[in-house]
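Page header: ASSEMBLY MODEL / two components / 476 residues total.
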Amino acid sequence: MPQTLTVSQVTAYIKSIFAEDALLPDVWISGEVSNFKQAASGHCYFTIKDGGACLKSVIWRTAAARLTLPRDGDAVVAHGNVSVYERDGIYQFYIDHLQAAGAGRLWQEFERLRGQLAAEGLFDEGRKRPIPERPRRIGVATSANAAALRDILRTLSARYPLAAVALAPCSVQGADAPPAICAAISLLNRWSAERERLDVIILARGGGSIEELWAFNDERVARAIAASAVPVVTGVGHETDFTIADFVADRRAPTPTGAATSCAPDIRDVRPAVNALAEAAAELMAERLAGAREDVTRLAARSRRASPERRIASDRQRLDDLQRRSALAMSHALGDARGLVAGLQLQLAALNPQRVLDRGYAIVLRDNSIVVSTRQVAGGDAITVRVADGTFDATVEG
Amino acid sequence: MSVEERTFEELFAELEETVRRLEGGELPLGESLALFERSTALAEQCNTLLDRAELRVRQLMQSADGGLADQPFEGWQG
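Prediction written out in full:
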């Protein structure tokens, strides 16, 4: 006697065939919606049909909550799995994603390309290059006549007018947009390599429908961004729009204005950085001067202790004059250094030993020590004299 | 190259470097002064450039024979 199966057994068997099938567990299906009903439970039951067949379809409550539900007569593309409903002995389409027909096709392509490029590693974090903090030259690829470009240029002008912008206009919508965008990225890269280095490229487009933004989901555009030697920041559409270009870019900004903002520091933050450095220089100089003043004071005390008996009047006067001028200038400079930078600069000019030499004074050295007393030299000693533009050797007479 | 012909970024980088050398410590007084004067001049130039800065926009073009060219791009301020 041949093997006998129960109805449940054969139905479970059929269901397992559906589940193991290459196509049915993960399938996109297009058709027209009819007899759409949403039950009190929240689950939706309807039929998708075309000219030759119809398919019972289900959207569970959780999926229904996040989808835009169709109405009878809508042409849709839906994703889900086809499986068997044992109780009624029927097969049904269990839908987890559903789009109006045109958009549905686009999204299939979007998911396919996203998966492919992700598998190739084009979205890896490790590929993302840093954007220079203070860019000198910014490349912009966008339409020359659109609001997006004005938004970008106004933002850059307000935030960081020190930058120079190199604009490569391109169509950003329609069939000719992908090659035009690729050409613009290529032109900016050529310019960067052959003329003036660009620090970053902004690739942008203002908001629009999903079809209008579609050029930024084109594989050619994705690969042009990946191949760009200059880092790319995207600002496409609105906050909620994500394109393939965004995934490949070194940085994604929510809008064209956001892209410009993210590329340029605020000039109001730059000025304090300059002033902080100038103040640091003034403080360091003040410390250095305080040290030098101590040195002078010590030197003066030592020379008083030396109490020379046969000092030549002019030498003495010269030394005193030097000390007085130095000490005075230093004390002034020190005070000013804590105040205004500009004032300090003028005061400091008097301190520079070179300036003293420039006025006609000389420094006498014997064995590399400064001669401050006649006792330090004797007739026949070799000495070195330093003047403004150099030194010469001399011999002491008598 | 004179200070006036240089970009803000170059001036700022030199300012940072000059202050770093001042921090370096035991330089002769004359050298410290020269560095300090340089840093003051650089800071003034940086601030002047910040005051005067105006965004420059140029449009790039590629001619039929593949040559590169550019021209001022105007009219976006309106």
